[in-house]
Amino acid sequence: MKKALTREAYGQELVKLGGENSDIVVLEADISTSTKTCYFAKKYPRRFFNFGVAEQNETAAAAGMAASGFIPFVSTYAVFASMRACEQIRTFICYPNLNVKIAVSHGGLTASTDGVTHQGTEDIAIMRAMPNMTVIAPTDYFMARAAVRAAAKHIGPVYLRFTRDPLPILYDDSIDFTIGRSINLKKGRNVTIISTGDMASQALKAANMLTAEGIDAAVIDMPTIKPIDHEAVMKAASETAGIVTVENHQIIGGLGSAVAEVISENCPVPMKRLGLRDTFGESGEYELLLEKYGFSSTHIAQACKEVMKRSGNNVQHT
């Protein structure tokens, strides 16, 4: 399957948007070749600001620019935006509900060999807790481009989470991306897998494994973690035996928590959350890390069987 970088999509779409709207400015933390804001810097140098390794200053300045009518895109790695600049994002961006976009690379274990210091695995939970913040983790290159464009049009703070490694391409340039809306990647009647970001391809692999065993699994791609697509979650809970969520993130506070909040208050069904289970990752190859920490396609398929068993809905294999 062909792969491409979501951070590359971010850099390319920024240049396109910059040509359409002169209010768009880009702030960087000295890693523009990694976040791909270097493309914008080359095309629009007077609207590009490199703050060096000073993310707190970077985000505070973005707040000032937004208050002056600009549309700032703040770029750095997930760990540094969500933690080093956490107070500035909360108090200076989210509290006054300013029109700032936080666009980060190296989300989850895709930072792989860069190690724990660069693996952003708590960021979604942190950003979800921020009032007024919208949280998006695009699935592939084409969705990333569409998400960047949607974020630029959206009024208010947005957190865009990209990955370090290239991801399988599941969509094309005709993708219909809407903030707060999920996409059905595969229909199914027995159990539902809900994934976000890079885990969509793993979810599809798991669904194919289950098909070979006579189990019909639905796969929902949930790129917007906040606001979560309540309707899609409720539909899955009412139409299938249970739900398995999978995310390249801690299971505390991320996609799994968001889905659990919806179904526990409205339509409780058996559920299993897959992701990092209250542990840090380590340096290593991406696929091997997924296996070690229990959220590869094999683990997803097994979780689906466990959920179905708990529901009492055992499928007759054909």
Question: Gist?
Answer:
The chain contains 13 helices and 14 strands. It is an alpha/beta fold and 318 residues long.
Topology:
Layout (H helix, E strand, L loop, with lengths): L2 E2 L1 H15 L3 E5 L3 H4 L2 H6 L4 E3 L4 H13 L3 E7 H7 L1 H9 L6 E5 L17 H6 L5 E3 L4 H13 L4 E4 L5 E2 L14 E4 L4 E5 L4 H13 L4 E5 L2 E3 L3 H10 L3 E8 L4 H12 L4 E6 L9 H7 L4 H15 L7
Parallel strand pairs: 2-3, 2-4, 4-5, 5-7, 6-7, 10-11, 10-13, 13-14
Antiparallel strand pairs: 1-8, 6-12, 9-11
Question: How is this structure best described in words?
Answer:
With 318 residues, this protein is of the alpha/beta class. It contains 13 helices and 14 strands. It has helices spanning 6-20, 32-35, 38-43, 55-67, 78-84, 86-94, 123-128, 141-153, 200-212, 230-239, 255-266, 286-292, 297-311; strands spanning 3-4, 24-28, 48-50, 71-77, 101-105, 134-136, 158-161, 167-168, 183-186, 191-195, 217-221, 224-226, 243-250, 271-276. The strands form three sheets. A seven-stranded mixed beta sheet has the order 3-2-4-5-7-6-12, with helices on both faces. β13 (243-250), α11 and β14 (271-276) form a beta-alpha-beta unit. α10 packs across α11 (255-266). The protein is globular, with a radius of gyration of 19 Å. The model has no long low-confidence stretch (mean pLDDT 96).
